[in-house]
Amino acid sequence: MSIKFKFCKFLFTAFSLHCISQAIYFHHALFRLPDGKPYLETYMAVDGKYFPYDKKDNNQFQVSVSFKVLLKKENDPEILLNQYSLKSPFFSDTNKIPVFLDVQRYALTPGNQRIIIQLLDHKTKTVLQEHPIALNVPSKTEKIFFSDIEWVERYQKSQNTSSPFFKSGHEVFPYLVNYFPEKTNTLCFYTEAYCFSNLNSTLTVQCRIMDADDNVPVKGYLKKTPWNDITKPLPLLGQFEISALPSGNYYLEFRVLNNNDSVLASALHFFQRKNFFGKKSQAITASGMTIEKYVRQIKNFDTLYMHIECLYPISSEIEKERQFNHLKTKDTSNMRNYLIHFWTKKSADTINPYVLCKNYMQQVYEANALFRCGKQKGYNTEQGRVYLQYGKPSQVAAMYNEANTFPYEIWHYYRSFDQTEQRYVTNRRFVFVNNNIADHCFRLVHSDMRGEINNERWRYDVMKRFNNGIQNDSNIPVESQNTQMNDLFQTPR
Fold first, then answer.
1. Which of 235 and 473 is assigned the larger pLDDT?
2. In this structure, are 285 and 179 located in the same domain?
3. How many independent structural domains does the chain possess?
4. What global pTM score does this model have?
5. Above 70 in pLDDT, residue 254?
């Protein structure tokens, strides 16, 4: 399972990612030793550009981030599991601060407990942010079962047993999300199968990719591994080549089969794929799936509610009012009818309404994964709304550590289609600023897009020390000349 702490940039309900700071991504997985004792692995990816760096010898720089890890069991006091400083590799170019990884392992005992990860001020060691992880660690059982999954960025054979990434004869480097974009063409994974009984048999472990929407196997994605000695845990380190896997929601399924192909144990792990080169939309059309059938299959009220609520960025004012009324009355029959009407009208007989709906929901999931503000879903944030209304920006200039400024981003669209106005636009910019560094709520302060907020004094919103009560006739603060914001606004990169 995985997490994403606030003040961060990546998560939605289907994802299990969490983040501890603006860019500390965290995941954890529960495993067993050969004797059945449980232990927890934690994985972190730290984006160094979000943190201060120190100058070292030979004009080198380094980022240091401090953590404290606590264990709290029911009716017991907190126990300190670990306190450590994680250091980045040395770097010489402060415009290319690296992302660096960390793996920790903690022995556990069965029962309900919480692991608390605390981000500390590196100098004072005061707690800046913390996130509890609720765990229910089962007792040792004679049943066959699987561990949690570790998504893997890459792995390589190794004899370096002192490496924190070493396991099962390999160095295994974690991948901290279960989202695989176009540029990622390999899905790698690590899990383990256990059997702590005296069962005397040869079993087979099957791994395959399942379509999460239709719950059917995807052809061409199947692996089988013999489990000859079931008295020992079976490590399953492998990969699928997914360049041809279309966009969509999927499960990675593991099953233990006996000689009669009976399923003795199974585990499902959700992941999402984005791939413009896939052909799933054509397959959907050929399968006869309709928007009516799809909507009628939505049984969960929260899911139905979300399907309407997320339409706001691509809706006219009249449609927004209708959506508000349906969400207020909560009549599920009328809500389903409205969804069918909305997508049928939106498709205008040019595309299967179901395909149009599924493609948009894919973008909604992306917005939820990329943007978050407090408890808001990504599609309700200002960045998420722009992302869904105008699409993915052509260029993003992200400045998080520039002197005398709040963290800000400048988005540049070379050419975009406005989903609300149903028109193409070219060469447009959006400026977002995060004035509260303790969260990741970027608000829109300026855009040259028609209908959006147009604030010629947006630079005062970005400037950190010169925006309180300033009454200056100039739209451009003198102090902004010492920043990159003017250049980046003209030429984002």
1. 235
2. no
3. 4
4. 0.60
5. yes
Domain check: are 260 and 157 in the same one? yes
What DSSP letter does each residue of 48-95 carry, written as one string? GGGS-EEE-GGG-EEEEEEEEEEEEETTS--EEEEEEEEEPPPBS-TT
Task: Tell me, yes or no, whether 195 and 267 share the same domain.
Answer: yes
Residue 378, domain member (yes or no) = no
Q: Is residue 384 part of a domain?
A: no
Which range scores top for mean pLDDT: 55-59, 149-153, 246-250, 351-355? 149-153
pLDDT single digits (tens) 308-340: 999 999 999 999 999 999 999 999 999 999 999
- Which secondary-structure segment (H or E) carries 461? helix 458-462
Average pLDDT over residues 354-377: 86
Q: Is residue 199 part of a domain?
A: yes
One-character DSSP codes across 241-289: E-TTPPSEEEEEEEEEE-TT--EEEEEEEEEEE--TT--HHHHHHHHT-
Tell me how far apart the terminal alpha carbons of the chain are, to the nearest angstrom. Answer: 35
What domain range is 409 assigned to?
A: 389-490
Q: Are residues 402 and 363 in the same domain?
A: no
Rounded Cα distance between 332 and 299, Å, is: 9
Give the largest Cα separation in the chain, rounded.
84
Identify how many contiguous H helices and E strands the chain contains and give both numbers: 9, 25
Strand-pairing partners, residue 42, are 28, 104
Q: Hey, what are 415's tokens?
A: 């050419």
Looking at the fold, whether 407 and 467 belong to one and the same domain comes out as yes
Q: Is residue 263 part of a domain?
A: yes
Residue corresponding to tokens 């606004």: 489
Q: Is residue 20 predicted with pLDDT exceeding 70?
A: no
Question: Quick check: 411 and 399 in contact, CB under 8 A?
Answer: no
Rounded to whole angstroms, the Cα distance separating 131 from 18 reads: 9
| pLDDT, tens only, 135-179 | 989 988 888 999 999 999 999 999 999 999 999 999 999 998 888
